[in-house]
Give the backbone structure.
Amino acid sequence: MTLILLAISLLTALCFLAFRFAIYALPFMVGLTAFRFVHATDASFLLSALAAIGAGLLSVGIVIFVLGFAKNPALRLLALAVFAVPAMVAGYALVHGVTHDAIHSALTLNLVCGAGGLVVGLAAMANLNTLGERVLTA
């Protein structure tokens, strides 16, 4: 019984951690691409890591800049969508990885995974919008 409770609590903790990481899918992918590009030019690992961190922070900074200075709601929504679409894909993959052995119906699995991706995408949009408001009001 203790082992089952431990497994459930560890699965819950890993799902929470994966959810928090999935929100930041766009900066991670931008950073990974920058790392691979700089490392392919025979730069050192440290220089490649610094370029990756800078590119990831720059991607978040550009979206916050657009949120702060754009008055058009469609442009603001587009900036949030650019940030949220990779998070939706990561959320879909996260839910699919956790539930693909438990749900046997393909339609139900796609609906559950789509709902999970939507929740992660909306959470990414809300998180970035809150971060933008905090940065721009301070």
Summary: Residues 18-137 form one domain. The chain has one domain: 18-137. The chain has a mean pLDDT of 87. The radius of gyration is 18 Å.
